[in-house]
Amino acid sequence: MQWTLVVPLKPLDRAKSRLSDTADDGLRPGLALAFAQDTVSAALACPAVRDVVVVTNDARAGRELAALGAGIVPDEPRGGLNAALAHGAAAVRTSRRADRVAALNADLPALRHRELARVLEVAAAFPRAFLADAAAIGTTLLTASPGVELRPSFGAGSRARHAASGAVELRPAGVDSVRQDVDTGADLRTALALGVGPYTAAAAARLLIPEQ
Mind listing the domains of the chain with CATH numbers? Predict the structure, then answer.
């Protein structure tokens, strides 16, 4: 039982604006790319994942993530995160109608492939399911079984919207790395404490991260 993961990534020069207290304009694009590289690398190492498709119009990100083995789909709708995810899922299912599809955040630099496998194993029992982020407000993963529409509703407060849409909330233990997205300096400190991948470790070494 395998999944295709759809990972949305906005243009790097507009990514991670909430990290402005930690990274200046010159460093944030590289940091956002590093998050995505570690996320995609861990996802591709997961035995439950057939492949990863990144939806982006950023040429640099497309080249770097394709080099890791990800497929790249242009963000043709240019309508924001959820439009990009719906477009990516539709593109996947045009060629692989039977695939289980999951939307995964691009900012999970501490992602562990074994923890991702655990979440996907639990998700396979439900038509649609989601995993809340570490703050218990947003969503880091949304899944859909074959023939079931993904219906993404990511963004602020997405945990409540996904639950209201009928998706089952997943609550497996020991999957902190799948929940820990990074939007702020505090999030980055938490991810670094969990242990990030090599791309983020290298990018973060250039930052002066204040203590909490």
Answer: 3-204 (3.90.550.10)
